[in-house]
Write a structure and sequence with these properties.
eight-stranded parallel sheet; TIM Barrel
């Protein structure tokens, strides 16, 4: 992919492309193909100046500041493209096709109904219906198992979150397995969403919370102790407080860590400074994800390569993290066991070829 050109050799990247994978932290709204955006712009009369280019408006560039403000600005442009049901269905299908092409066997794809609905004033129920239908169709065609997580933002009205949760509960039979609380954690508390998240849990949905990314470890503690999160999105700033590290390690809470995203959003000053290895040494249950692969210009294989080739993760430990992701999935026990069994067989066959 573009971001790692000249950083990790193609031959080394190719090693990781054949690994069977599990992805638990990928946002639909950050997974749009550039070619699809060009098609939608042409079909719907969306025009842009020659400079900056469309690519630079929707993908991180190496010559621009690496900060969460710059990263989030890409979504401002992407939101201009959710023009029709067909577009939303297409981007859902393509996100799943791209995951399958990278060797992902199981994907939990999170999407934000409010973001997809806002431009054209779609009903949230319509958006959920379109995404569920397209995800099922694409998964069957691509031979990948996909489950969906509905996401809400803490900087938006909790009433919208409550509506999203009710839609998620109503569509559990269509592959929705969880709820995600995301958004601006630096300036907005999760407190107004406590009743909303409680309703989701009581209805049988799992919970993942973005915390400890753009704010400190106190948000990780709240996600664990108050919000009863099953997983933590990112959470890399947990390392700033040994007491929260100890709490998370004791509970075995999975951390959905996205290496490139953490660098591009300015959470860490350099890739070499990423706390992945320190998190693992501290006994934290870390799994790897892409976050927004099209914005970051990566695939999960790139994150695997980065972890091993740049950060020093042993290949055997990478395999352990793949199984950890399977165990951390929001699948029911029997399906989780089946996924782990499939991974064991695929990895054994891969090992036999080496």
């Amino acid at each position: 992919m573009g971001w790692y050109k000249n950083r990790i050799s193609t031959s080394k990247l190719n090693i990781y492309r054949v690994y069977p994978k599990v992805e638990l932290h990928r946002h639909l709204e950050g997974s749009l193909r550039l070619s699809t955006l060009q098609d939608v712009a042409r079909d719907h009369g969306i025009t842009f100046p020659l400079s900056p280019t469309l690519r630079s408006l929707v993908q991180m560039q190496k010559d621009e500041p690496l900060s969460f403000n710059v990263f989030l600005s890409k979504f401002q442009t992407l939101r201009l493209f959710y023009r029709s049901p067909k577009v939303i269905q297409r981007i859902t299908r393509e996100a799943i096709e791209d995951a399958a092409a990278d060797g992902i066997l199981y994907l939990e794809l999170r999407f934000t109904p409010v973001a997809l609905a806002r431009l054209q004033g779609f009903q949230l129920a319509e958006v959920v219906d379109w995404v569920c239908g397209a995800a099922d169709e694409a998964s069957r065609a691509a031979g990948i198992t996909t489950r969906l997580i509905v996401s809400m933002n803490r900087h938006e009205d909790p009433a919208l979150g409550a509506e999203v949760v009710e839609l998620a509960l109503a569509n559990r039979s269509r592959g929705i397995v969880g709820v995600d609380l995301a958004g601006n954690e630096a300036e907005f508390s999760a407190d107004p969403f406590i009743p909303v998240l409680r309703r989701a849990r009581e209805g049988g949905l799992k919970l993942t919370v973005h915390a400890g990314e753009w704010n400190g470890p106190e948000n990780v503690r709240q996600a664990i102790d108050v919000l009863a999160a099953d997983r933590i999105g990112h959470g890399v700033r947990v390392m700033e407080d040994p007491r929260v590290v100890e709490l998370a390690a004791e509970r075995g809470i999975p951390f959905e860590v996205c290496l490139t995203s953490n660098y591009q959003t300015g959470v860490i000053p350099a890739l070499s400074d990423h706390p992945l290895m320190r998190m693992l040494k501290a006994g934290l249950n870390v799994i790897l994800g892409t976050d927004d692969p099209s914005i970051s210009q990566i695939v999960l294989s790139d994150e695997y390569a980065l972890a091993v080739e740049e950060l020093g993760l042993h290949p055997d430990a990478l395999v352990e993290r793949i199984f950890a992701a399977a165990r951390a999935s929001f699948l029911p026990p029997d399906e989780k066991d089946a996924l782990i069994n499939t991974l064991q067989k695929r990895l054994a066959a891969l090992s036999a070829q080496v």
